[in-house]
User: Fold this.
Amino acid sequence: MARKRINETTRQKVIKAHENGQSMRKIAKEFGVGLASVHRIVKEKGLQKGQQKGAKKEVNIERQKRIQDLEKRIAELEKKISNLGVKKR
Assistant:
């Protein structure tokens, strides 16, 4: 059985919905295409998890900043703990 061809308008709508964070399952149901087709369309455009490439870099930068803040806080707490050990002696 031959597959029904997905037109460019539907492809663009699928991509837009994915960029907006809509689940692939919901997109497939909404546009009447198979889940595998949605996966393929998204993969062809190089999109992942509803994010654009630039947005992914921003997330990584924010994550690195949070990690640095936590490492700084850990160092402060370790210093306090070490000072408490000195005071008890």
About this structure: The chain has two domains: 1-50, 52-89.
